[in-house]
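Second attempt. The first submission of Transport permease protein had a stray character pasted in from the spreadsheet, which I only caught after the job came back as garbage. Lesson logged: always re-copy from the clean sequence file. Corrected sequence (267 aa) follows.
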Amino acid sequence: MALQLSAHRPRPGAGVARAYSFWLLNYRRNFLGSAISSFLAPALFLASMGLGLGSLVDSGADPALGVPYVAFVAPGVLAATAMQTGVMCSTFPVMTAMKWQRQYHAMIATPLTVLDVLLAHLAYTATRVLLAAGVFLAVASALGAVPSPWALLALPAAVLTGLAHAAPVAAFSAGQETDSGFILLFRLVVTPMFLFSGTFFPAQDLPAGLEQLAYATPLWHGVDLSRDLALGAPDAGSAVLHVAYLALWAAVGAVLTRRTMARRLLR
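This time the job returned cleanly.
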């Protein structure tokens, strides 16, 4: 009998598609609630910063960027959008599913495993990032901000950037009892990264200490990778380093999230 039960035990990861379908259905019902933050706001940001401020930057007597400002800032905003989307998908949705509406508990009550639940949520996050990045890249192309066909590879780079932030943040969110920690997360981590990780100006223009701190953030690696691709100047060595660093953040975050979820869901 024990052998028969073991033979019918679901393989870890086999139920990912079922849990993933739940998140997709939930997103279809609440799509309009995130349309502005995911699609409209990044495009307006690009237009205001890239074209508005960019006209002043480009009119300088000695432009230091080497490219029009809109072409410089577009891949930065693309990576930052991926970061913000990943964080948004792994803060309140994770806490809601863990504590308030307890969807995670309902999933675990079925043959789904903790790994199924985790991978499904990360897959859903990757889908959200891909949609937001795809719409943004289309708008940026229409504005002439991505002059190279290499920019298409910025889409998987954006997805990896989003996961590099979503996975560690999910580990943080899964262990929270209240949402007060999210205020500190957005104010002390997300917003400074958005402003000082090379999105709007080169990180080497920062003071020495802050410059090294910027290089340590996953967002800077996502911005630099996306920018190299969008400008058609990818370097194989740098690209491998960026991908490996982002993948490390995603992998470590996923391991930590799985441990935290298992501790809270299986106790």
